[in-house]
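User: Now give one protein:

AI:
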Amino acid sequence: MPPQTISAQCESVKQNTSFTGQDVFVPVVRPSHTTNVYQKNYKYMYSFPHAAFVVCQETHKNGSIKIILIS
């Protein structure tokens, strides 16, 4: 007997996936700012000049006073 052919059987579909990727660059600007501060501080230094004198005083029995200023 010769071989026979019957109607085809349908199986579930085998899913194949092909992936193609592409890089897309998006420019992002992030601005910044720097402020440089120079500060000058004045500090006052007070001085109090003071003069000192030495006085030599002599008295005499006759009532006269002699003053000698030594600086």
